[in-house]
Amino acid sequence: EAAVEEAAVEEAAVEEAAVEEAAVEEAAVEEAAVEEAVAAPESMEVEEEDAPLEDWTVKELKEECKTLGLLEKGKKADLISRIEEARAAAPVEEAAVEEAAVEEAAVEEAAVEEAAV
To answer: DSSP letters along 20-80, please?
Structure first.
């Protein structure tokens, strides 16, 4: 009888420990979720490439200027102007690079044809 009672007490203690451990783990998970939620607003401040620059924050505009290698100082309107100018110039540069690659390929092809003759 004493052994049965002792086993029941031990089983109750094991169950209680498991319940406590689960509660501690659940609390840790909840705490981590709260910390993540608190940190989320900062990470949500990522500029939306499609959004008009006027809707971006000054912080986002400065980060974009830094990414583009532009001066990061000035008022919002100055930052927007710099970014727009850089974006307007970028397609011209890309087209020039593509054109140069096409010309280079044509020159190489002509050289191969001449070598074959």
So the answer is: HHHHHHHHHHHHHHHHHHHHHHHHTTPPPTTS-GGGS-HHHHHHHHHHHT----S-HHHHH
CA 8, CA 50: separation in Å to the nearest integer? 66
Per residue of the chain (117 residues), give pLDDT as tens: 667 666 676 777 767 766 677 666 776 667 766 666 655 554 444 445 678 999 999 999 999 999 999 999 999 999 999 999 988 887 766 566 666 666 666 556 655 566 665
User: What separation, in Å, do the N-terminal and C-terminal C-alpha atoms of the chain show?
Assistant: 107
CB-based burial label for 8 (10 Å; 0-12, 13-18, 19+) = exposed
- Residues 52 and 84: their CA atoms lie apart, in Å, by 11
